[in-house]
Amino acid sequence: MLFTRGLNGSLFALLLVGPLACSGTKGDTESGSETEAATEATAGGEPTGGEPAACDDTDPKALARFEVEIDGNASDHEVDLPCTVDAVATEEATSVTTLTCDQDGSPVAVVLRLPEAPEGPVSWAAGDGVQLASRFEDLDVTAERHLELRGDNDALLAAGFAPHNGSLIAEIFAPLTVTAVAACGPVEEFDGELASYRLDFSLAGQTPVSVFSGNRADLPIDGGESFAIDVEIATYNECCHASEGFVMLVRRVKTG
User: Fold this and answer.
1) Average model confidence (pLDDT) for the chain?
2) What burial class does residue 8 get, using C-beta atoms within 10 Å of its C-beta: 0-12 exposed, 13-18 middle, 19+ buried?
3) Is residue 41 included in any domain, yes or no?
4) What are the tens digits of pLDDT across the range 178-193?
5) CB neighbour list of residue 155: distance below 8 Å, 6 or more residues apart
6) 120 secondary structure, DSSP code
7) Confidence of residue 220 (pLDDT cuts 50, 70, 90)
8) With contact defined as beta carbons under 8 Å apart, do 159 and 171 qualify?
């Protein structure tokens, strides 16, 4: 886990995703400033002709909202905790995982809420040992949220990402490789038109999938499992200076 190493033991907070508009007010989604991902996307190739139809298409089922609650409290945090899954249930199209985590030798009750994936239920179950890591910083009109849930041998179970600033930290989703490509228009320094990234997700031994902003896909894994991928937002030219916005969620689900 790249971003979680060396994190402190502060308590988990509520994780919600929402936007940052150019006016500096919070909304339902967030965007950020120019980042390394934009540079990589430009290097990956800008469109040479007509833009893909997927640049304008959206799927209402693409939901990347996630929430982590610990002992009912919500505050800024940066944590990396070993946990045991107590139960997994479904409540109103939401997958709810309750865990008991260890914070410096003291038990902490944690609830993880993720949108239920159409492909199937989450792959983890009661009794599993997992590592739950998160960073949340609320800056009043902006926020940054990173989430990782991993199992044995650092296996990816779930990862969420919603920054207001900075590059796409693709390592959060390892072993998935995520590449942002500016496929829906040029990256503009000023007065650019808001455009969708094409995010290319690849996994060794599997056929890659491409997901545009506001869409979703699944990437099969051996053993009757799949990575359900929701990209609620993946945009560039957001307001000023080639700013970017990402709201995305990946979770391992059972399909067979």
Assistant:
1) 80
2) exposed
3) yes
4) 999 999 999 987 777 8
5) 252
6) B
7) very high
8) no
Of the pLDDT bands very low, low, confident and very high (cuts 50, 70, 90), residue 241 is: low
Share above pLDDT 70 across residues of the chain, in percent, rounded to a whole number: 77
User: The whole model's pTM is what?
Assistant: 0.79
Token pair of 53, please? Answer: 């139809």
In a domain, 5, yes or no: no
In which element (H, E) is residue 114 found?
strand 106-115
Per the CB < 8 A criterion, the answer to whether 4 and 68 are in contact is no
Total of domains in the chain: 1
Is the Cβ–Cβ distance between 246 and 172 less than 8 Å? no
Weakest mean pLDDT among 67-71, 120-124, 239-243? 239-243
Cα distance between residue 161 and residue 117, in whole Å? 17
Alpha-carbon distance 132 to 98, whole Å? Answer: 12
Q: What phi and psi values does residue 82 have, to the nearest 5 degrees?
A: -75, 140
| Three-state DSSP state, 232 | strand
Query: What string of DSSP letters covers 10-42?
Result: PPP-------B-TTS-B-SS------HHHHHHH
Does residue 17 sit within a domain?
no
| 124: in domain | yes
Q: Which domain holds residue 141?
A: 36-48+56-254
For residue 44, the surrounding DSSP H or E stretch is helix 36-44
